[in-house]
């Protein structure tokens, strides 16, 4: 089962710099074409499925506007002797 992730972008802090978009190894981030923040920026958002929750976008964000959530992997079953 592949690991799935999601992000939450704070409209208060995101300034639409696109550093997260460029850094995403899965190429699933984009700037929202139809939303604007209160400061007039197009915030980052997930463009579709495929986020693995790697966290690279959050690391490169100069405003710390991205929170990454990663699906917890199911517990492995241990073999009984």
How does this structure look, described?
By secondary structure, the protein is an alpha+beta fold. The protein has one domain: Alpha-Beta Plaits (2-Layer Sandwich), CATH 3.30.70. 12% of the residues lie in helices and 20% in strands. It is built from 2 helices and 4 strands. The protein has helices at 19-23, 56-60; strands at 5-9, 29-31, 44-46, 66-70. A two-stranded antiparallel ribbon has the order 1-4. The longest helix has 5 residues, at 19-23. 16% of the residues are buried.
Key structural traits:
two-stranded antiparallel sheet; Fe-S_Ferredoxin; metal-binding; about 20% strand; 4 strands; about 80 residues; Alpha-Beta Plaits
How is this fold's topology laid out?
Elements: E1 5-9, H1 19-23, E2 29-31, E3 44-46, H2 56-60, E4 66-70
Antiparallel strand pairs: 1-4, 2-3
Terminus-to-terminus distance = 26 Å
* Percentage of residues in strands: 15-25%
The secondary-structure element order is EHEEHE
Largest sheet: 2 strands, antiparallel
Specify the CATH architecture. 2-Layer Sandwich
Shape designation:
elongated
Helix content range of the residues, please?
A: 10-25%
| Biggest sheet, spatial arrangement of strands | 1-4
Structural class assignment: alpha+beta
What number is the mean pLDDT? 92
Cα-atom radius of gyration:
15 Å
Q: What top-tier CATH class fits best?
A: Alpha Beta
Count of β-strands: 4
Number of domains: 1
Protein name: 2-oxoglutarate ferredoxin oxidoreductase delta subunit
Enzyme class: oxidoreductase
Keywords: 4Fe-4S, Iron, Iron-sulfur, Metal-binding, Oxidoreductase
EC number: 1.2.7.3
